[in-house]
Design goal:
- It is a single chain.
- This protein is mostly helical.
- It is 70% helix and 0% strand.
- The protein is built from 10 helices and no strands.
- Helix 4 runs antiparallel to helix 5, helix 5 packs antiparallel against helix 7 and helix 5 packs antiparallel against helix 10.
- The protein is elongated.
Length: 213
């Protein structure tokens, strides 16, 4: 039921502003001190809100980390939507921009994503961002290369952004993000070239024709 006064909308606006202030403060703290030193009390002080406000909204450091990931995902989606609105890019250009944007998203949030992966190893595959990314990639692949198994290939592409693998490539292999993007471009080019008529599991084409013998 709608409140009889204008107080509720004002409270919602204040809550939204507080949330942004808390997340901004948490980002600064993480950048300066890392997760191990992250304190909800310190974040509350930096954000200029009561510590009870932080605990009620996020409950724990893990809750704050997941909220940061969700907020960064929202920003990524907004940027991708703006890209798609400019000059009606092709499916190839949209998918390339999407994959490059994901690489930058993982790079910018590597520590957060590694923390999330460590706490729930398989949780990524059940998360809303993963399902959303998979659906978006499937849509673009279906347009770009209708002959491929879009759902399976989407899983393969998303494996490139597994936090542990991405971090291994950046730290142990010493690859920069440009090299990772270049590898994704190579895969994408191959998909565009080979995405012919769809084939069923038995290797016949969509028209049901048998193999030549």
């Amino acid at each position: 039921m709608t409140a009889p006064t204008g107080r509720a909308p004002t409270e919602r606006a204040d809550a939204a502003r507080n949330r942004l202030r808390i997340l901004d403060a948490a980002r600064r703290r993480l950048a300066a001190d890392g997760f191990a030193e992250l304190s909800l009390d310190a974040v509350a002080k930096d954000a200029g809100v009561g510590v009870g406000t932080v605990y009620r909204r996020f409950r724990s450091k893990a809750g704050l980390v997941y909220s940061l990931i969700e907020d960064n995902e929202a920003r990524f989606q907004e940027e991708f939507a703006r890209h798609c609105a400019d000059d009606a890019p092709s499916a190839h250009d949209r998918l390339r921009a999407f994959l490059h944007g994901l690489a930058e998203l993982v790079e910018d949030n590597r520590e957060l994503l590694l923390l999330a992966e460590a706490s729930v190893p398989a949780g990524r595959y059940h998360s809303a961002p993963f399902r959303r990314h998979h659906e978006q990639i499937v849509g673009m692949l279906t347009e770009l290369a209708p002959g491929v198994d879009a759902a399976y290939v989407a899983d393969l592409l998303l494996m490139a952004f597994t936090p542990g693998l991405f971090d291994f490539q950046r730290t142990e292999r010493g690859w920069d993000v440009a090299r990772i993007k270049g590898g994704l471009d190579t895969v994408l080019a191959g998909l565009a070239e080979t995405g012919g008529p769809a084939r069923d599991a038995g290797g016949t084409d969509g028209a049901g024709g048998g193999s030549e013998g």
